[in-house]
Amino acid sequence: MLEKAKHLLQPSARSAVPPFMAMDVMAAASRLEAQGRRITHMEVGQPASGAPATAIAAARAALSSARLGYTETLGMMSLRQRIARAYAEWRGIDVDPARIVVTTGSSAGFTLSFLAAFEPGDRVAVALPGYPPYRHILAALGCEPVGIETSASTRWAIDGGSLLAHHRANPLKGVVVASPANPSGTMMTTSALAELIRCAEDAGIIVISDEIYHGLDYAFTAECAARISSDVIIVNSFSKYFCMTGWRVGWMVVPPPLVRAVERLQQNLAISVPTLSQMAAEAAFDGRAELEAVRRGYEENRRTLLEGLPRVGLDSFLPADGAFYLYADISRYSTDSFAFATRLLEEAGVAVTPGIDFDPLRGGNFVRLCYAGAREEMQEAIERIGDWLKKGRI
Ligand SMILES: Cc1ncc(COP(=O)(O)O)c(C=O)c1O
Q: Which candidate among 58, 90, 114, 350 keeps its CA 20 to 30 Å from the CA of 80?
């Protein structure tokens, strides 16, 4: 390539976001599989099951009969109404379909929320440990992610006190919360969420609530921010409870003053969300019995790991209230979770995600295990991890 072209094609400074390591681990695991190794996958947070049969049937029917052109930018009205109906029937919450925006997974919901609510340079609080793309998307958009270290004293969530302390030191414009959270699976109680929302809104801080793991709660029912305030931006998805990661469809519940801004942004960024996926998503609501059976499988996997892993030497986890993750403290073996995860993959054939993906400060002491896989894989993971730790190879 010509020197001139090399110079011209320098990636922008804003594109220099860190990689999402879970995906890098998945790629390394696939390389080993291609060499014939059998790998137990616990690295990527996605259900082993596919979309419910109702969704597949709707997609099949649409392929043979529907034109599958663009839809309205805010999403098919029938899907927005079906989502609103689910809030009413499943949670007893009245949500106006006019506030519901269908998105390309919750990932697009973050980009739209951040663009609609924040200016470049705005400071937005995120919990550490926390889902890395919050920080990376904010940074790519020119906002400043402000990591707030959480601890057992606040049940590993940002609380009003720590939010306001950061705000007083240097004003915040927003805060992202998630309950159940990724990587820990830990949930906020209703009173903790309500208190955080009250503190934030009193201080003029916009709250974005990532509710992607709702429906996957085992310790108690996850509270929906819509019950607490209509000023919160809610982001949700068909990826996790509905087992539709690859269909790339999610939704937002948007405060009325921001709906038109989100619509204008999505018109320009995406035009609309894939029509086939929207049709399948609408039908997925009718597959609840199947989805509840999948959820019971996660509960069983969670029990198997929480009983089995302590017996082989991994015995300290953040409260595993929901989602499908265990965030395991490995500090008695290593404070370099990347090296730990690399060797666990190469030597024991178990793929997990290093904690430094989720918490640049203390993540060296943790790894995340996803238990959304098949039941037999949980037992296999316990045995493989146990043998590896016993051999003392770390
Ligand atoms: C906490 C959290 N939010 C959002 C996402 C993005 O999911 P999607 O774009 O598939 O809806 C994930 C994916 O793992 C996640 O764990």
A: 114
Residue with tokens 């316990």: 382
pLDDT in tens, 309-329: 999 999 999 999 999 999 999
d(CA 15, CA 9): 12
> What pTM value is reported for the model?
0.95
Q: Is the CB of 106 under 6 A from ligand 1?
A: yes
Centroid of ligand 1 to alpha carbon of 246 (angstroms): 12
Q: Which residue puts its alpha carbon closest to atom 16 of ligand 1? A: 182
Radius of gyration over every alpha carbon of the chain, rounded to an integer in angstroms: 21
Arithmetic mean of pLDDT, 113-120: 98
Nearest residue by C-alpha to atom 13 in ligand 1: 45
**Selected residue with higher pLDDT from 371 and 45:** 371
Cβ of 105 less than 6 Å from ligand 1: yes
pLDDT of 1 = 64
Bridge partners for 144 per DSSP? 123
CA of 64 from ligand 1 middle (Å) equals 31
210 Cβ closer than 6 Å to some ligand 1 atom: yes
Mean pLDDT of the residues in the chain = 95
Please tell me the distance between residue 107's alpha carbon and the centre of ligand 1 in angstroms. 6
